[in-house]
Amino acid sequence: MRDFIVDAMIRILIKYCDPFSKFSKVRRYLEKAILFDLYFLLQVLSGCGVYDGTEIHEAAAIMVHLSRGGANVDMYAPNISQMHVVDHSRGQPADRESRNVLTESARIARGKIIDLARLAARDYDAVVFPGGFGAAKNLSTFSVDGKDCKVNKDVERVLKDFHKSGKPIGLCCISPVLAAKVLPGTEVTVGEEQEQGGKWPHASTAGAIKAMGGKHCAKDVMISFSSHVDNTNKIVTTPAFMCETEFHHIFDGIGAMIKNVLRLTGK
């Protein structure tokens, strides 16, 4: 009876402990101890909205597939200002307006967002980066500087820590440029290497990846299992909205990415 009560108390603490409180580390270790058969992953967000932050549909698709795969997921974002703010109804920058990446990302995380500076790779089995121009504007300077871009210091640290620990990294849409820049020699995909009449409007990204020392592997997002796995570096990528196509193709490609990320955890 005593063991049952103790177990029940621990499970209550896991469920209701605020992830921002001083007990958050205790909560994480208890989860690891009791829910040892589950996956513990995180998403790194870059704001809220395709043109200046996270691609919301991609982030949601990642959550669906992780949930279906039996993963516990936390959401992180850097506590920095956005490069700029875009009026999504016009597709144009909003004059004299500024927003914070962490604050905007909280919209997608339903308020449960954590500062990326607090992330420790030892607490998780894998990390996933959704796309959206925030990856190229806020997590890096790729949208402005291309192959000569710089990557946010915490994003760079996270990528290097997970890679060094042999833990899988998933990236979709434009975010594979982050891995290509920080981890030269890795294999990634952002889709096809030619625009094909506007179907792949950002095809030139493949050339930039090669210029940064990455290896680009062309993939067609309209094939449901369209993800590329770099087994040596445990990096999994999928084109997602780099292609102008229907949402279900994006959803399926992200599903393939997540399936491989979970497989590479070895659980």
From TrEMBL:
Keywords assigned by UniProt, alphabetized: Mitochondrion, Transit peptide
Listed Gene3D superfamilies: 3.40.50.880
Cell location: Mitochondrion
Xref: InterPro entries: Class_I_gatase-like
Domain of life, per lineage: Eukaryota
Gene Ontology cellular-component terms listed: mitochondrion
Name of this chain's protein: Glutamine amidotransferase class 1 domain containing 3
Origin species: Naja naja (Indian cobra)
Record gene name: GATD3
